Amino acid sequence: MTPSLVVENARTEAGEIVSLILENDRIAAIGPNAAAGIGPAAVPRFDAAGGLLSLPFVDGHIHLDKTLIGMPFIPHIPGDTVAMRIEAEKSLRRTVALPIEVRGGALLERLAAYGTLSVRSHVDIDTEVGLKSLEAVLSLKQSHGHLVDIQTVAFPQSGVLRDPGTAGLLDAAIAAGADLVGGLDPAGIDNDVTGHLDAIFAVAGKYGVGLDIHLHDGGALGAFELRQIADRTVALGLEGKVVVSHAFCLGELEDADFGSTASALARSGVAIMTSAPGPVPMPPVKRLAAAGVRLFCANDNIRDAWSPFGNGDMLERVGILCDRQDFRSDEDLAAAFRLATQTPAEILGRPVGPLQAGSPADFIILPAASLAEAVAARPLDRTVFRSGTIIARGGRLIA
């Protein structure tokens, strides 16, 4: 073993004070006595000062191509329906001169500074932009991959059937390097549940990739669509590779409808993403978890045409989720914290904890004694390690 850095006085979730021996981009050893025998002058040291050792954050739903980070503030354009907001966004999109590579890069740098080291970005694919936005986001993998791991979803924001030619573009997007196929409101936007799902699952089945589908359709209709998605997931052998984002309907169902829908989701391994947004229904976290449904938290829109809000900090997003779900106990706060770290890492297929010998040296030190305190205090004064190197402190990149 040739240590490159010793991290001392870090606190585990269990409250144990440990040292970590880093060997370049891996954790070589971790434990209360891991640094025993290593002379104080032999290897550089970092004193965690009793700070909480945590897995890095994972933001499993953002839009790198949409963000307006890096630009002067642009007033929000309201829209009462999803379709209206799509058109407002397309109008704004035509006027934005700052390239996606610049705006998306600025957002990735901000995310990394807060401790988010893996993301899944939905990227608009339609007959107006073609694959240009995808090409820009794929270039961010090259320019910013040393900071953040990036997955991409080919997202038909304008619909599939209502924008003829989009299905072919989704196919081309996967062939060009997109990781997953997206979808959007089969009924609400395309007005054809079967036709929409046929189109997107056909592309996923052809390439053997997963799907991540935006679903705003509410009530019994949304629940029906969720069960259709679950059935198709099983039929194509895609268990564990499909996510439905938002799924507001899960927060407004009668018991029988909720039970059958949750059962279908659990059986098929279809996961749910929630950003705990605004004054709309949201999936009930505890109830879904009790039914065996996997669920995680993400930021979604970060200062773009859909929302003027959002700073990219996943710890702040976890706090918003706790407020919306009335989480107050230490156990609830700790469970919510894991919805932004361990759970999305598992769903996105990223390395997951516990941090141990052989793990990637990607982690955060937070000035807190527990996960619950971290969620309650949401401290910005955090230290972010990426591949064994400190890349950020106090919410700012230093490398």
What do you see in this structure?
The protein is α/β, with parallel strands linked by helices and 399 residues long. Helix content is 34%, strand content 21%. It is built from twelve helices and 17 strands. The protein has helices at 82-93, 100-114, 132-144, 166-176, 193-207, 219-235, 255-268, 285-290, 314-325, 330-338, 342-347, 371-377, and strands at residues 5-11, 17-23, 26-31, 45-47, 52-54, 57-62, 116-124, 149-155, 180-184, 211-215, 242-246, 271-274, 295-297, 363-366, 383-386, 389-393, 396-397. The strands form three sheets. It has an eight-stranded parallel β-sheet. The chain has a five-stranded antiparallel β-sheet with strand order 5-14-15-16-17, with helices on one face. The chain has a four-stranded mixed β-sheet with strand order 3-2-1-4, with no helix packed on it. α5 links the parallel β9 (180-184) and β10 (211-215). α4 (166-176) packs parallel to α5 and α6 runs parallel beside α7. The chain is globular, with a radius of gyration of 21 Å. The two termini are 26 Å apart.
